Structures are given as structure tokens and as C-alpha cells.
Amino acid sequence: MTLIEIAAKLQKGLDRQPIEDSLKFDCGEDGTITLANGQAQLTDAPADCTIQISSANLAKLIQGNLNPMTAFALGKIKVSGDMSVAMKLGQMLK
Fold first, then answer.
1. Is the per-residue pLDDT at 91 higher than 80?
2. Count of the separate structural domains present in the chain
3. Residue 78 burial (CB count, 10 A)
4. Other CB atoms closer than 10 Å to residue 39's CB: what's the count?
5. What are phi and psi of 4, to 5 degrees?
6. SS3 sequence, the chain?
7. How far apart are CA 6 and CA 70, in angstroms?
8. pLDDT tens digit string along 5-54?
9. Burial annotation 9-18 (CB, 10 A radius, 16+ → b, else e)
10. Which of 76, 58, 48 lies closest to 7, judged by CA?
11. Which of 47, 51, 67, 89 has its Cα between 20 and 30 A from that of 20?
12. Which of 90, 76, 77, 10 is nearest to 50 (CA)?
């Protein structure tokens, strides 16, 4: 799954369950997806919360094949900034 496809899935989630805060997925060299103002964009913009995750693990997370708490505990996900924003992600992805 490419970052463009992941961003499209995230956009569908935002359309169903918008979040007021901004959230950034930093996938290293693969790129960055920022969720802000109801939009999922392939940009590296400042955000309230940043999640560092590989693009492969982000695809698994979006598809429901990676438990976010387990991934965090195993170091597959690193969160910086406002942790409460990251917690809203689960509601958006349902």
C-alpha cells in the first residue's frame, strides 16, 4: 500500500469522524502524511502530535492488522507531542 493509498483511506476516516487537532505520520524516507483541517495530505507540516512509523506498519495499522498499543509497546510506533490526539485515531479508523 502506497502513502497515497494510505492517505486516501485516512481521508475517508476523516470524512466520517473528523478530528479538530492535527496529526502527522512520519514514515521517514517514504514520506509524511499530515491530517489537519479535515484533510489528509502528503505534506510535512507542524502538528499537535507526530507518530513515527514505517509505511509498512502504517498500512497494517490502517487495515486493522496491527494493534496500536502492542506496536507502541514494541517500539514500532513512537509518539511525540499531544498523546491524546493519537488516541483519537482509533475512533477515526473505525
1. no
2. 1
3. 12
4. 13
5. -65, -45
6. CCHHHHHHHHHHHHHHCCCCCCEEEECHHHCEEEEECCEEECCCCCCCEEEECCHHHHHHHHHCCCCHHHHHHCCCCEEEECHHHHHHHHHHHC
7. 21
8. 999 999 999 999 888 999 999 999 999 999 999 999 999 999 999 999 99
9. ebbebbeeee
10. 58
11. 67
12. 77
Say if residues 79 and 58 touch (Cβ distance below 8 Å): no
From the list 29, 32, 24, the residue with the least C-alpha distance to 4 is 32
pLDDT of residue 68: 86
Domain that holds residue 33: 3-93
Instruction: State the CATH number of the domain containing residue 76.
Output: 3.30.1050.10
- Identify the residue whose cell numbers are 492488522: 65
